Amino acid sequence: MVVYAGQGDAHRSMALLWRTAESGQVRTGPGPKPGLSVDLIVDTAIAVADAEGMAALSMRAVGERLGRTAMALYTYVPSKSELVDLMYDRALAELPTGYERGAGWRAATTAWAEDTWAFYLRHPWVLQVSQARPVLGPNEYVTLETLLGVLRDTGLEAGVLRRLVGTLFHFVRGAAQTIAESRQAATATGVSDEEWWFARSALLAQVAPDFAERFPMVTWLQRCQSEEWEAASDDTVPYLDREARKTFEAGLAVVLDGIEVAVTGASGSSL
């Protein structure tokens, strides 16, 4: 399920994201103060998405959590489209806004990547909001500003820096998406990863008896993986989670090595 940001009214969405005077985030006037606000609605919507996924998100579901009707929410948030924009940007506010750079750009970038990866796993629904069209909210810009502040220390020119920022975001998001989908698969299908793999892989010997001859490198790698799996059978961390973490760390190291090469090539000496 892919959700595209920015599908609601542009003027109202931007006013709500940036909390301008015309956003109407808090109602004013005579009578008792209302028990709702934009922030409360958005926080409740995030709670719904965290607990039940993006597919369960609706104005009605949010209203039910608040003990209100969906219609009561429309005074504050025009539609689900604007709500998704607000949820996405609000969730990003959890991320740190600065990193210690005394140990250099690489250590700071590693810390940024780990924090961002963990953020995506806390809020897997965020991964369903397409990056094709950004939300253009304040917290989205803060996340960009934070990483740019770290990588600016490399001294790389703006064009290279822009592309490296995109590469890092894509890598971290992709790594998190793999493990998030793996965790969701068991609930969605009713079959655990272990059950699925054992059932399917066991059939390879029947449908492809010459598999080892046709794919010797794959067979070798699978044998090594099986040995590693058995050696870690008593580990309290699920194998697939542990493997995803190691893959993330290995991939990040390679990406950072590439940036290191770019820095060396630009300055003549490694930073």
Gap between N and C termini: 41 Å
Radius of gyration: 23 Å
SSE pattern: HHHHHHHHHHHH
Number of helices: 12
- What would CATH call the homologous superfamily of the largest domain? Tetracycline Repressor, domain 2
Oligomerization category of the chains in this entry: single chain
Strand content: under 5%
Please estimate the helix content.
55-70%
Global shape? flat
Average pLDDT, rounded to a whole number, is 90
CATH level-two architecture of the largest domain: Orthogonal Bundle
Number of discrete domains? 2
- Protein structure class: mainly alpha
CATH topology of the largest domain: Tetracycline Repressor, domain 2
- DSSP, total strands: 0
Sum up the structure in keywords.
65% helix; 271 residues; 12 helices; Tetracycline Repressor, domain 2; Arc Repressor Mutant, subunit A; single chain; mainly alpha; 2 domains
Notes on the structure:
This protein is mostly helical. It folds into 2 domains: 83 residues, Homeodomain-like (Arc Repressor Mutant, subunit A), CATH 1.10.10; 163 residues, Orthogonal Bundle (Tetracycline Repressor, domain 2), CATH 1.10.357. The two termini are 41 Å apart.
